[in-house]
Amino acid sequence: EIIRRIRIIKGRGFSMRKVRSDKKVKVLAGLTQDDHDKLQKLAISCEMTKTKLAEHIISLCLNSEDHVNWYQDTFNKNDKYRVVVHKTPEGIEYF
What we know:
Layout: E1 3-9, E2 13-19, H1 33-45, H2 50-62, H3 65-75, E3 85-88, E4 91-94
Antiparallel strand pairs: 1-2, 3-4
Helix pairs in contact: 1-2
């Protein structure tokens, strides 16, 4: 689904600008030097950028029921905010 925004261009009137529905959002993670070195070596080994590899690793964890549950079991302090993971044919959903 594409959302359109109206934008005013000086001297030209209005124009419609498309906004991607699959637009990516930046997350700037602070890494230790050791983790950065490991990421860099693995990225070179896999012939991809560090950013692309980090994106794959994060996506893998967020879409793995085992990883999500491990993080919650380890770090969740309030059960009120615990995420319930449900498997669907398309992947997993959070509730």
